[in-house]
Specification:
alpha/beta, eight-stranded mixed β-sheet, binds zinc ion, 8 strands, 278 residues, 11 helices, 16% strand, globular, Rossmann fold
């Protein structure tokens, strides 16, 4: 078997992943699951940068990176996968090159496009697990609905100024709509551009998302399913809120009304424009 079809490990892989393989909770079986898994990282910004680096380095067999934006100088304080010299280039393509250089033994795929209602189901279908590192409500509801309809788990992460949150949404055990049935009123939550964000905070949250993805894939430990982790970097506290599957959820509840993707700009009440983004 070749090194990419999930068979035996090469000598190089045994050495590269040796610190995983010695962990009882992961071991050769867990490392094989990582190698056989396909993870899509949605947004290669502050959250997606560390998630992409750790998941590629840890031996996830295929890492997909989707982002339609180009690298801007104001991104570089926190989007650490992008070098300064790559300003103006497509984030997905640059991040793909950088991640592939970190680990040539895995496959890294660039999707240099915005996730939309038209392409979401097709793109997500090529992956087993989604890391949501998006920066707007339109995309969060879109990826939530598309992943649920396809039966894919989502590791959700978001940040705002000095605070961040993470949770794992596994189909049938709660979703983003169970947590937030309605989006906030248009314009109420300012984007990073206006609100600011602490540089290393997305590094913390995006890295926790990578940890959760590895746990969900390998079965190690207790994932953040039914739990919302809240982090305050200024106070340096982590606390947890229990999340319950909402029986009235319009997507995953007892009587769902959403059975296909909807118009997310209309649902959120504002168009997804470059100015509204991170
Ligand atoms: Zn739900």
């Amino acid at each position: 078997m070749s090194s990419r079809d999930g068979g035996e490990f090469t000598e190089r892989e045994l050495e590269r992943y040796s610190r995983h393989i010695v962990l009882g909770e992961i071991g050769p079986a867990g490392q094989r699951r990582l190698k056989q898994s396909r993870v899509l990282i949605l947004g290669v910004g502050g959250l997606g940068s560390p998630a992409a680096m750790y998941l590629t380095a840890s031996g996830v067999g295929r890492v997909g990176l989707i982002d339609g934006d180009r690298i801007d100088l104001s991104n570089l304080q926190r989007q650490v996968i992008h070098p300064d010299a790559a300003r103006g280039r497509l984030k997905a393509e640059v991040a793909c090159e950088q991640a592939q250089a970190l680990n040539p033994d895995v496959e890294v795929v660039a999707h240099p496009e915005q996730l939309t209602r038209d392409n979401a189901l097709e793109v997500l279908a090529g992956y087993d697990l989604i890391i949501d590192g998006s920066d707007n409500f339109q995309t969060r509801y879109l990826v939530n609905d598309a992943a649920y309809l396809l039966g894919r788990p989502v590791v959700h992460g978001s940040i705002f100024r000095f605070e961040g949150q993470v949770s794992d949404f596994v189909p049938g055990q709660g979703c983003y709509r169970c947590l937030y049935p309605e989006p906030p009123p248009p314009g109420l939550v300012p984007a990073c551009r206006q609100a600011g964000v602490l540089a290393a905070l997305p590094g913390v949250i995006g890295t926790i998302q990578a940890v959760e993805a590895i746990k969900l894939i390998t079965g190690a430990g207790k994932p953040l399913v039914g739990r919302l982790l809240l982090h305050d970097a200024l106070a340096m506290t982590f606390r947890e809120v229990r999340l319950r599957h909402n029986a009235a959820c319009v997507l995953c509840g007892d009587h769902p009304t959403i059975r296909a993707l909807i118009d997310y700009e209309e649902f959120v009440g504002e168009p997804l424009t470059a100015a509204a983004r991170l």
